[in-house]
């Protein structure tokens, strides 16, 4: 059986304080009290035969509620998480108004075994972080994307 695949965009911006990247925090009760190592790139699973870059753009829209910037995406390659899922990412320069976040929702029985179905946002927060801070916030499997982005950017 083929391993699952996801695709995402690592949005970055450059400013006086250096390079910052946009990370998202998953919604729902499991993640509500987690912070360090609990943030991710906006990403999602590929549909059968779906183009990975198009899937990354779709997931950005679904998780953040707006289209990704129109700049030229730069491939960051792939990583594999502990569960075996292969994640492919692209860096794209631009910005996002984090206060405009409007994520899609998912349904979950909560509390467990109560029969109560509740809806939660797929993403409950989005925030820009410096590359150094992002390395502590980002889920460990995705941290290599930060180093690859830093290698691509000209020195400040």
* Domains, number: 1
Task: Compute the separation of the termini in Å.
Answer: 45 Å
The CATH homologous superfamily: Nucleoside Triphosphate Pyrophosphohydrolase
Q: Provide the CATH top-level class.
A: Alpha Beta
The beta-strand count equals 8
Radius of gyration: 16 Å
Order of helices and strands: EEEHEEEEEHH
Low-confidence stretches: none
**Multimerization status:** single chain
Description:
The chain is α+β, with helices and mostly antiparallel strands and 156 residues long. The protein has one domain: Nucleoside Triphosphate Pyrophosphohydrolase. It contains 3 helices and 8 strands; from the N terminus they run E-E-E-H-E-E-E-E-E-H-H. The protein has helices at 52-64, 131-137, 144-152, and strands at 5-15, 18-26, 43-45, 74-80, 86-93, 105-109, 117-121, 123-130. The mean pLDDT is 93.
Tell me briefly what this model is.
By secondary structure, the chain is α+β, with helices and mostly antiparallel strands. It has helices at residues 52-64, 131-137, 144-152; strands at 5-15, 18-26, 43-45, 74-80, 86-93, 105-109, 117-121, 123-130.
Question: Can you give keywords for this protein?
Answer:
8 strands; Nucleoside Triphosphate Pyrophosphohydrolase; alpha+beta; globular; 19% helix; single chain; six-stranded mixed beta sheet
Detail the topology: elements first, then pairings.
Blueprint (H helix, E strand, L loop, with lengths): L4 E11 L2 E9 L16 E3 L6 H13 L9 E7 L5 E8 L11 E5 L7 E5 L1 E8 H7 L6 H9 L4
Parallel strand pairs: 1-5
Antiparallel strand pairs: 1-2, 1-3, 2-8, 4-5, 6-7
């Amino acid at each position: 059986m083929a391993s699952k695949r996801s695709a995402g965009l690592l949005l970055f911006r450059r400013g006086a304080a250096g390079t910052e990247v946009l990370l998202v925090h998953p919604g729902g009760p499991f993640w509500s009290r987690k912070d360090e190592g609990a943030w991710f790139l906006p990403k999602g699973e590929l549909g059968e035969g779906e183009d990975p870059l198009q899937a990354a753009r779709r997931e950005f829209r679904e998780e953040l509620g707006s289209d990704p910037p129109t700049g030229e995406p730069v491939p960051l390659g792939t990583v594999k998480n502990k569960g075996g899922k292969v994640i492919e990412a692209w860096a794209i320069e631009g910005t996002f108004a984090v206060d405009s976040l409007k994520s899609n929702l998912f349904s979950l029985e909560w509390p467990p075994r109560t029969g109560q179905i509740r809806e939660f946002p797929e993403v409950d927060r989005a925030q820009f972080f410096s590359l150094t801070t992002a390395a502590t916030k980002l889920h460990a499997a995705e941290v290599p994307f930060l180093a690859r982005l830093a290698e691509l950017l000209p020195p400040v």
